[in-house]
Amino acid sequence: MKLYSWNVNGFRALCAKPDWRRFMKADADIIGLQETKAEEEQVPPDERQPTGCHAYWLSAVRRGYSGVSVFSRPEPLAITRELPLPAWQGEGRLLHLEYPSFHYLNVYFPNGQNGEERLVYKMGYYDAFLDFAQALRRNKPLVVCGDFNTAHRAIDLARPKENENTSGFLPQERAWLDKFTAAGFVDTFRLLHPEEAGAYSWWSFRMRARDRNVGWRIDYFFVSAELAPKVRRAWIEPGITGSDHCPVGLELDL
């Protein structure tokens, strides 16, 4: 099973770009998109539900903000939207699809760079998500993908020293990823590429950061530990443009 995750930073704008056509030729089984910034009815029908796929959309209450979608060739057993508690609903951040052998979570985690209030919200969302994931895991394994908005270790960004006080690499954000992995969730890229440096999934639009590969790895595929032996490939595709993020991929032998 081949899976992709991509923060598209505006789905309607991406659809008009050639890289979207190239990406959709990858023959993925499940594609999770984040930061779609669109309501389903705003998207042309042929893009809203690609041929051969079941399509699921979740938008934020605030128009043009956040949003996630999933295109899936296999039909899921069930689908839910958002975390179960009202405090974490309304921003269009999570789609949960249940398949016969695993739960799949496509998540766009909050960004903490817009002040202390949003950082507090981000950390609260992290904790609520972990509780939700652990509850689901009692039933069957998990695959979690999306934009986590945090680089875990110094190897995961080009300039760790300069960003020690920047949200996205703060000690408390990184500590939560420590807690997440300690709970039994495996970073699939690091599982197969433990020492690979310069592997990033997001670059600022400023100062030609992408051309110079001054980036961050903040987009992930995690699996619960019981699925780790099923991981065959995990990769990043920086050659696919059209967004300030690039797609990340996972192949599972199920």
Number of strands: 14
- Helix/strand/pairing category: alpha+beta
Strand percentage lies at 25-35%
- Rg calculated over all Cα atoms: 17 Å
Helix content: 10-25%
Q: What is the end-to-end distance?
A: 7 Å
Oligomer: single chain
Summed up, what is this model?
With 254 residues, this protein is of the alpha+beta class. 21% of the residues lie in helices and 26% in strands. It contains six helices and 14 strands.
Structure commentary:
It is a single chain. The chain has six helices and 14 strands. The protein has helices at 11-15, 18-23, 45-48, 116-137, 171-182, 188-192, and strands at residues 2-7, 30-34, 54-58, 68-72, 78-81, 94-98, 103-108, 142-147, 185-187, 202-203, 215-216, 219-224, 231-236, 248-252. A hairpin with a 4-residue loop joins strand 6 (94-98) and strand 7. Helix 4 runs parallel beside helix 5 (171-182). The mean pLDDT is 97.
